[in-house]
Amino acid sequence: MFDSPMSVSAYEVLRVTVDVDDDTLRRAYRTRLRETHPDTGGDAALFVQVQRAWELVGTPEARAAYDRGRGSSSGEWGAGPAASAPSRPADTRPRARSHGQPGGWRRERYLSLIREWVGRGVDLADPYDPALVRSAPPEIRHILADALAEEETARLVAELGMGYTVWHDVFADRDGRDPEQKIDHLVLGPSGLYAMLSEDFGGPVGVRRGEISGANVIGSPVTQLVSRARVVARAAGVRFSGAIVVLPDDAVLDAITDLGKVRGMPVALVTRSALTTLLRRGIPGAREVGGTELFDIRTRLQQRVRHV
Fold it and tell me: For domain 10-69, is the CATH number 1.10.287.110?
């Protein structure tokens, strides 16, 4: 949570200033624990966030390290999907077929807006500098956070293997011209065809009447995802098995949350660490795809999908 462009700092979670002394910091932590503890009517997700904040700044050593880097992996923010993971031995296993550039449109949008916000004529040496990102308006930070979320989802889906096909950044408006009306990922495999949204709201979220709710949630992301899937379904002559919203692990308490049907389509929220499990087994109640139908759907999408 604290390495996201959207996230608040550990100090903000504990409701103290960055120059607070250690004793005051400790008292603030205990106060926040009481306020957020589920047994006293607090929010369980916020309770976990408070504990995580204390892990980052609760000792002099941890606090010094956090203050140097502000708890971010921002050095990777500008790396893109190819460098989002640490160096590891080459993986020679077959990967899912992938089409389009995950997070590409949002990265371009972020770079355009951050330069516009800084001002013309200003030499912007590093548009991903942590101090610059943290000081930018929330709507700009959200765009970068979503780009990173899309890239991470793409990395996870690729590991499902050659039985899966994924299309990234797919136009989902009737005219095929508005990049704001897009689906982040279409994933096709034996468990079904899914429309997927990768999101990062920078904090815990909840569910209310089949929709995501939270301090940084704008609009109706679940309803929008389902509506866009229906546009693609009509254009390509295919039927979706369901829709999936992918969130950071600490945004929700449950790894998989079944939202039931929204406009007739099964929908689930899933944390990143549980995504591949869900895609392999499918959403409860979703229609599986097998045999020649899978090849037919793939062909139809390949002919009709347009990338942002």
Answer: yes
